[in-house]
Amino acid sequence: MDDRAGPPPDLATRPGVSLRDTTEFDRMANFNDAIYAISLTLQVVSLEAPRITHSSSGRELWEALGDESSQIFMFFISFLVIGSFWLAHHRFVRRLGAIDRSFLFASLIYLAFISFLPFPSSLLGDQVNNGLAVALYALCIAAVAALEVVLQWIAKTHDLYLEPPTPVSYRWNVIASLIPVAIFLVSIPVAFISPQVAILIWLLNLPVGMIVGRRMPAEARAYYEQ
Q: Are 114 and 35 contacting, i.e. CB atoms less than 8 angstroms apart?
């Protein structure tokens, strides 16, 4: 990354700005990783080993595990979702040359939703047929994805990138980030009619994301994959 243009020379003189490779920047990055690590860990903490009458009965244990299948399924789904957010956020932070107060404030709101995700995940695992539980989970995921766009906008407008994205690259990345926002928001009213259909709507993220990825110009793909 040493060969990149870097942030504007006057950025260091702006109040509240911390350049890359400073203690303040490292604290922000480490704090982000810690929040993600705690959120991922709390996913499994919500799971409890089933209690059975006969400890040596494999059949009874299997049936008890079946009763908790939705919680186990939601653990892996949520781990995948939060892990995907962390990977995207990790790539984003790698492209930053500085942070400022506005960015830190927006990051705190973003991390608040990341920290909160284990709760709606656990709730949905227990109440997978409850429309409100499905809607709450969808709303939280949409909020996280939307806040990613806000962070990207702040980084662009405040000249915080090491190498600013081109208009084409920025536009396509915003489109890709808004896909889960749209899909999860659409699923919210559906959840109160049919929770199962709402959950199936979430699966559209994969094919729609692949279509957008294929149509993304090489210029945009090269910038965000570096």
A: yes
List the end-to-end C-alpha distance of the chain, in Å, as a whole number: 9
Cβ-Cβ contacts under 8 Å for 201 (sequence gap 6 or more): 183, 186, 187, 190
**What ranges in the chain are assigned the alpha helix state H?**
23-45, 58-67, 69-94, 101-116, 118-126, 131-157, 167-191, 195-202, 205-215, 218-225
| Residue entry with tokens 């081109």 | 166
Helix, strand or coil for residue 165? coil
Give the tens place of pLDDT for each residue, 46-80.
666 556 665 555 666 666 666 666 777 777 888 88
CA neighbor of 182 nearest in space, from 152, 141, 211: 141
State how far the Cα of 33 lies from the Cα of 125, in Å rounded to an integer: 25
Measure CA 172 to chain center. Answer: 18
Which residues are CB-contacts of 191 (< 8 A; sequence separation ≥ 6)? 131, 132, 134, 135, 138, 198
pTM for the model stands at 0.83
**Nearest CA-CA partner of 43 in 66, 20, 73:** 73
Neighbours of 109 (CB within 10 A): 12
Side chain identity, residue 78: S
Mean pLDDT taken over the chain: 83
